[in-house]
Amino acid sequence: MTRRQGRVGPTRPRLRENGLSLFFGAILLLSLVGQAFTGQAGYNDQALDSGLPTFTLVEYVTSSQFAVDVAENWQSEYLQFLLFILLTIYLFQKGSTESKPLDKRGRESDEDQKVAEHAQPDSPAWAKVRGWRLSLYSHSLGLTMGLIFVLSWLAQFVAGHSAYNAEQIQQLSDPLGWTDYLLAPDFWNRTLQNWQSEFLAVGSMVVLSIYLRERGSPESKPVGEPHGSTGSQG
Amino acid sequence: MVTAVTSRNARRYAAWPATCALLALTGCAGQGSVEDRPAADAAEHFARDVGSDPSAACGLLAPQTRVKLEDEHGPCVQALPGSKVPHDAGSVREVKVYGKDAVAHLERDTVFLARFDDGWRVTAAGCTPNGDRPYDCDVEGS
């Protein structure tokens, strides 16, 4: 009995402490696998109808067609979070869980941010001493999100150019050069259709969290919290 | 024999998004595809064989293209030389490959190709530009 507890003991707390990231990691992989199978089937259906070569699964997941479909969604997600991270420093929404309290505008004081001489013993090492490390670490989340956004968008452009030109050739048209593709409706339509959905999702969350509740969720205010209360979490 | 193959782009596959981004950032995005040469070779062989060895040229047509040609004009070995596809279109001046699709501009023709399991096959030939619209092709599969 005691030995049994000893075996499961260390694993379960770890799962519990990381459940959110593990769950999202798992459904990300499942979704990508599903996208790969359905995307391959869709591509091959069209290819067979047109008498063109089909893709094996491996060929499909390494193709520009799959890459552009993945990248166009990734870039918009990271843009969404980048904007959210940066804009909430300066913009407020009274009553929203996604906004800071109205008196906390800007980068806030070192004391509020627990940096340098205000750091706690268990603060991250780069937060404890002034200098370039503190400056870099103070913006590390935005920089990382921004970098992934730029790389994903670049990947969408490169893969999209290749996928679009393959389609052009299949339709007996000349492929486009890089500059022409940068101005092409295909590139901007892929980009903007993803951006608008992300902006809608963020805007909805900002506004709906003022008036609606989900008991127990940190993304919601406590059920009995007034609508006007800003920045509180349940 | 390919006398000049310009590969302005063309990667076989764009691979993973991160890889693409890195390729683009490191300036590798403009490098030619390993398929440029095989695609150009197929286009040149086809162009050369249309007049001299129609049977071989027919063997280089994509299945659906050949079926359509034969449905409309009879046996390929007679229909192909009788079409508007030039009998000696010359050598490839430029080829562009994207995944399994390619277009080859020869001296006197433009040829579209696709890469099947048994190699590059001609999907359309005898093609003339049509402004911003698709090429007008005398032999095509769709």
TrEMBL record, chain A:
It comes from the Bacteria. It holds the Pfam family DUF6766. It comes from Pedococcus cremeus. Residues 99-122 are annotated as: Disordered. Keywords: Membrane, Transmembrane, Transmembrane helix. This is Uncharacterized protein. The keyword Membrane applies. The chain crosses the membrane at residues 20-38, 78-95, 136-155. Residues 100-120 have a biased composition (Basic and acidic residues).
UniProtKB/TrEMBL annotation, chain B:
Residues 1-29 form the signal peptide. The keyword Signal applies. Keywords: Signal. This is Lipoprotein.
